Amino acid sequence: MTAAILTRFGGLDAITTRHDFPIPEIKAGEVLVEVGACGINNTDINTRAGWYNKSVRVGTTREGGEHGFLLDPRYEVASIDQRFQFPRIQGADVAGRIVEIGAGVDSNQLGQRVLIDPRIRDQAEPDNLDLTSYLGNGVDGGFANYCKVPAINALPIKSNCSNAELATFPCSSSTAELMLERSGVTESDTILITGASGGVGSALIQLARRRGARVIALTDRSKYTQVETLHPDHIVCRNSDTFESEIRDNAPNGELDVIADVVGGQYFTKWLELLKRGGRYVVSGAIGGPITELDLRTLYLKDLDMLGATAIPRSIFSNLVGYIENQEIRPLLACTFPLTELQLAQQMFLQKEHFGNIVIVP
Fold first, then answer.
1. Is 173 left (phi over 0), alpha (psi -120 to 50) or beta?
2. Each residue of 1-31: pLDDT tens digit?
3. Residue among 134, 114, 126, 140 at smallest CA distance from 37
4. Is the pLDDT of residue 53 over 70?
5. Hey, what domains does the chain have and what are their CATH numbers?
6. How far apart, in whole angstroms, are the C-alpha atoms of residue 194 and residue 135?
7. Given a cut of 90, is residue 71 above it in pLDDT?
8. Which residues, including other chains, have CB under 8 Å from residue 29's CB and lie 6 or more apart?
9. Model pTM?
């Protein structure tokens, strides 16, 4: 089969296309999926470039993403998954069809159109999040003609969306829903969403609106029109000198209930000041920079909750499939590339001029 192989940590040249890579052999409880489409996300870039190595102190820059980061060998981990090894097929956002089933798998699954839950679960303890891996990191993913996953990860889906459209959902939307679930967002909350034009940010807008929350979206001025199509209650341009006062002017009593942050970086301390007493800050990304300062007095004097969001329970993903089937959220597809042009697709991704998801179609 054809597959895009990551051979080492580094730049775009660390990706090699092979046309003779073996089709995965499935075991009991597994299924083989013919990949219809596979989306690109920040984790693909960050892993390849070595950004998860703790010696990297900056955000996901275009230069670092294209050429890789200089890694300190004293820090062993450069991936989100301890089981990461080379060569590796990346790609976690998979839509496709089951073409082979292993022993013990319900025969009705054969031929099903599926959306893949990228959090690979232990078959003996599928609800134990400490035993999960991540598709395209600890195990081979979807930048190939075929990939294998446990049957429990292949969720049947009935939708008029194309495979490319379906591949915009798995990682960004499940991460967004996890952030909202962990921070307990309801219709009584006002939430600020940073990075609102990105994959997770745009999913946060749709899913927070689905919950009835008041949504303030923070984005670059160049993306204002696109973000407007998602109908947040208010859009604030981060390029503006008055963005902080604009946020306060559009929040009840000038304070926020929740901040959902996928950017991090220099504004972190400002966000905490905008939260009301007992407010919640939830984070699942740091493309603006992972290292920041925290005044502990702000944290404890305002009784704030600070939450991370990564490991996604099964219920989150199964609910997401239902939202898609009921058309409660819509796909945001920027463009597609063939598998042989994964490097070009990642280069475009790093330019951050697109809106919606970039998807690979084998």
1. alpha
2. 999 999 999 999 999 999 999 999 999 999 9
3. 114
4. yes
5. 3-168+331-361 (3.90.180.10), 172-308 (3.40.50.720)
6. 26
7. no
8. 102, 103, 104, 105, 123, 150, 151, 152
9. 0.96
